Description:
The protein is an alpha/beta fold. Helices cover 45% and strands 17% of the residues. The chain contains seven helices and five strands; from the N terminus they run βαβαβααβααβα. Strand 1, helix 1 and strand 2 form a beta-alpha-beta unit. The radius of gyration is 16 Å and the shape is globular.
Amino acid sequence: MSRHRFLTIGVSGHRPHRLDIHDKNIQNQVVLELEGLAERYPQHHFIVLSPLAEVADRLVAKLAMRILNASLQVPLPLPYDLYVTDFCDKESVEEFKLLVGKAEFYYEMPMKFGNIRELAITNRSGSNILSYKQYALVGAYVAQRSDELIALWDGQPDRGIGGPAQVIRWFDSE
């Protein structure tokens, strides 16, 4: 019986308003990175740690499951039913549910920054700082528990807390 080591690949990246999922260059870069990990770690079983947010998280998760035969683990920043209300449309919700169905497991992060009612309320600007803090919590969790990190980032400063630039800094400081 062969023994495999485990290698956890964390994922962080932009959502639809800052990342074009149809950009072939981005997809090719992710494929090259995953193939490089397979070459560097041939005796490892890969685990993808991804909250499955729209675009970046899902792209990397799908490609890693296909290319590396990776297992998927899904930490959610918010309770499941609340998290899906944050997606842009019904197709996105269905894609999320399909991927969660392929996961080894999913789990909800503790609600550290408010109760479910407070997290569901949006302020006048359409954002909720409590939800952003929950997203930062899951980003820190991914950074801390990953051996490798794939971040799809546009190189610009984050516009809030818990974005890919911050997750990269957290990962690099580990």
